[in-house]
Amino acid sequence: MQQTRTRTAVYYLILWLVAILFFLPVFWILMASLKTPNDILAVPPKFIFQPTLDNMIDMLSRPNTVPYFINSLYLSITSVSLAIVVSFLAAYALSRYRFRATNFLMFLILSTRMVPAAAFVVPIFQMFNAFQWRNQFGVLMLYTMFSIPFSLWILKGFIDGVSTRYDETGFVNGASRLHVMFRVVLPQVRPGLIAAFIFNLIFVWNEFLLNFILGGPGTQMIPYALAVGLVSAGGNIDWAFVASLSTGYVLLPTILIFLFQKYLLVGMTFGTVRGEV
């Protein structure tokens, strides 16, 4: 018994140390956003200081900051919502209408997310130029396309866990296929929908490379602002701006993960661990 308690204590100690290591950069950014520029660059670092919101006010008062936030929200929420709708329809079809190569097809679809974005950015760039898609529509479709494979993989796992008896009961009672899909199956895979939505929302929210290369005027998001806005007019890194923008940038993923962490657990296990969801 004592050995088991010691082993458990060691495991928790290691987990806490790893968590602290991951949280330290976030803690530094959060503290820097509340410091004056002189306090940020102070040596040794100041842990006791007078907090100020001047950095936040300055960050929000800059001309492009609010449009960057609006673009990030619009492109993330809209593209992922479209991807969830398409993925649910495809997942239902692949789950209920099985054929010999279903698993291989699912592997091919998911493998598109395994390829680094830099590997196909050149042909996509040429296509976007040819069709003049370097606008919100083009970027929206691009993020929708990238969000479909992972959403499809998660949702198919959930729909596979819903017995076909529910479908058969609905058909016997005169329900149409669409009625069964949206009124019978859809409510039972709600945790999967939420998990897929949050996972892909965080992916699009954090995406930089494609937005930087393929996006045109009016499509830039917060990662783009962080990349091109690091340097102030004097040629030095504007740490106050970077810290305040980064603090605002991490709020949405943090809130979503805190509110829906149980759904994320279910999503990562593809519905095999449901718990109290």
Features:
277 residues, transport, mainly alpha, MetI-like fold
**What's the story with the biggest beta sheet?**
none
Tally of separate domains: 1
- State Rg: 23 Å
Structural class: mainly alpha
Q: How much helix is in the residues?
A: over 70%
Uncertain stretches: none
Beta percentage is: under 5%
CATH fold call: MetI-like fold
Which class in CATH terms? Answer: Mainly Alpha
Subcellular location: Cell membrane
Family: Belongs to the binding-protein-dependent transport system permease family. MalFG subfamily.
Organism: Caldilinea aerophila
Keywords: Cell membrane, Membrane, Sugar transport, Transmembrane, Transmembrane helix, Transport
Overview of the structural elements:
This protein has 277 residues and is mainly α. It has a single domain, classed as MetI-like (MetI-like fold), CATH 1.10.3720. The model has no long low-confidence stretch (mean pLDDT 86). 73% of the residues lie in helices and 0% in strands. It contains 15 helices and no strands. It starts with a helix and ends in a 9-residue tail after the last helix. Residues 69-260 form the ABC transmembrane type-1 domain. Pfam families: BPD_transp_1.
Quick synopsis:
The chain is built from 15 helices and no strands. The protein has helices at 2-33, 37-40, 54-61, 65-96, 102-111, 121-131, 136-160, 164-172, 177-188, 190-206, 209-214, 222-228, 239-249, 251-259, 261-268.
Question: Which secondary structure elements does this structure contain, and how are they paired or packed?
Answer:
Elements: H1 2-33, H2 37-40, H3 54-61, H4 65-96, H5 102-111, H6 121-131, H7 136-160, H8 164-172, H9 177-188, H10 190-206, H11 209-214, H12 222-228, H13 239-249, H14 251-259, H15 261-268
Helix pairs in contact: 1-13, 3-13, 4-7, 4-10, 5-7, 7-10, 8-9, 10-15
